[in-house]
Design brief:
With 421 residues, the chain is α+β, with helices and mostly antiparallel strands. It has 3 domains: 1-33; 38-182, Immunoglobulin-like (Sandwich); 188-420, no CATH class. The protein is built from 6 helices and 27 strands. The longest helix has 31 residues, at 3-33. The radius of gyration is 27 Å and the shape is elongated. The protein starts with a helix and ends with a strand. 37% of the residues are buried.
């Protein structure tokens, strides 16, 4: 190989390396020029010093254990309060839409003057943005007494419980401090009604005598029932215009099952006509049709036994070998008798003073009894739990689960219901 040819090869290789470096630098520069979703210095009392350019750009990162992740070089932030008043600051992380690694595979931690034990990123309160920033995570609240300074070390790493599945995996994000406290829907609910929540297995049901749980969604009125354990929101239709029987076949045992019912078709059609345009905000979740039973002179089903005999409601769903029962995932369904009892309905007493009472009989999706005829649970016109033969026409109040990572306006009152921004 002659020297001229070697020289050409070397020049080409050098140009390729320069090109890659320039493109990489440009990518990082364009990321650094992106505006943070929240204004950083909206509070003149708070001053912030960062140890770096705040950009997190990982390409095919090495998976780390929590122990190793907590010893990586941190992003150090110094936050000072120059005023005589107490102030709050918040550490946010904007995840860009170029990120290919899912957020549940990333872990974060904070130590220093404030701490956050290592946690999967998707477990933090996240705000759905749907722009070039696909998610904003509120990592930590930092309380700053008057004339004080705090220093924190922020770390983020790829969790070693996960394996890279693509040839090129990228995580792009930017962290920053803001004095703006942006609350997600689930956060706002928790803060507004903290003393009116019933916590069951990390699912927080709203007590029946609480009235500011109104939501306007899909141009319809809804009652908020619960904050689910994944921070989605369970809501019930708050209208009286829907009615149907459960099914026509009253002499079959399987007629107690929602899957086998005429009512399921009715509710699915309601979803198609009224909610399909909002499908992206509605989450598929498990709904329980408890067909576990005890047979005496009739079949008494699980929810009936718990709420009419033991008075011990539960959101656990009994396993069954029957195809038409158990826990099944739907986009839309109904409330269960157990949930009605948790919120405030009883089988032995009328209740006119809780938000599930609306002056009408309406169906739940809980099988009740079979004595030659099939019965399912209802909420009666006097607000208590009862059972209705399945061919009876009753009101219908569908239940859906919606995203809790949106921001909302309103205070939940009838006059000013919550609305997605």
């Amino acid at each position: 190989m002659n020297s001229r040819y070697k020289t050409r090869i070397i020049v080409i290789l050098v140009l390729l390396v320069i090109n890659v470096l320039v493109l990489t630098h440009y990518e990082l520069w364009t990321m650094s020029k992106k505006d943070d979703f929240l204004a950083i210095n909206t509070n003149e009392c708070i001053n912030v010093i960062y140890s770096d350019d705040q950009i997190i750009n990982m390409v095919n990162p090495r998976a780390l254990s929590d122990e190793d992740g907590n010893t990586t070089i941190p992003n150090t932030i110094t936050i000072s309060n120059s005023c005589n008043s107490n102030e709050n600051a918040y550490l946010y992380l904007d995840v860009y839409d170029k990120s290919l690694i899912s957020d549940d595979k990333m872990k974060v931690s904070v130590n220093g003057d404030e701490s956050l034990s290592f946690i999967n990123l998707n477990k933090l309160n996240g705000i759905d943005v749907n722009e070039e920033i696909k998610k904003i995570y509120k990592v930590l609240k930092i309380e700053l007494p008057s004339r004080s300074t705090k220093r924190v070390n922020f770390r983020i790493w790829f969790d070693d419980d996960n394996a890279l599945s693509e040839s090129k995996n990228i995580f792009n994000a930017k962290y920053y401090i803001s004095s703006d406290n942006v609350e997600t829907f689930s956060e706002k609910l928790s803060n507004n009604i903290d003393n009116n929540l019933i916590n069951i297995n990390e699912n927080k049901y709203i007590k029946g005598d609480y009235n500011n749980n109104n939501l306007k969604f899909a141009n319809m009125n809804w009652k908020i029932l619960a904050i689910n354990d994944d921070n989605t929101i369970k809501i019930m239709y708050d209208g009286n215009d829907l009615e149907s029987n459960y099914t026509d076949a009253i002499y079959q045992e399987k007629s107690v099952a929602y899957d086998e019912s005429k009512l399921k078709d009715y509710i699915d059609n309601f979803y198609k006509e009224k909610l399909s345009d909002y499908d992206g905000d509605i989450i598929e979740k498990p709904y329980c049709v408890d067909v576990s039973s005890i047979k005496t002179y009739r079949y008494n089903y699980g929810s009936f036994i718990r709420n009419f005999e033991k008075f011990e409601p539960s959101i656990e769903c009994s396993e069954t070998s029957l195809e038409y029962g158990g826990s099944k995932k739907y986009k839309i369904g109904l409330i269960t008798m157990d949930e009605v009892a948790i919120i405030g309905g009883l089988s032995n007493q009328d209740n006119y003073d809780y938000y599930l009472y609306n002056g009408n009989d309406y169906y739940t999706m809980s099988p009740a009894i079979f004595n030659g005829r099939a019965y399912v649970g209802i909420v009666t016109s006097t607000g208590k739990i009862d059972a209705s033969v399945v061919n009876t026409i009753n009101k219908i109040r569908p239940v859906i689960n919606i995203k809790g990572d949106k921001t909302v306006s309103g205070d939940g009152s009838i006059e000013n219901p919550y609305k997605f921004n």
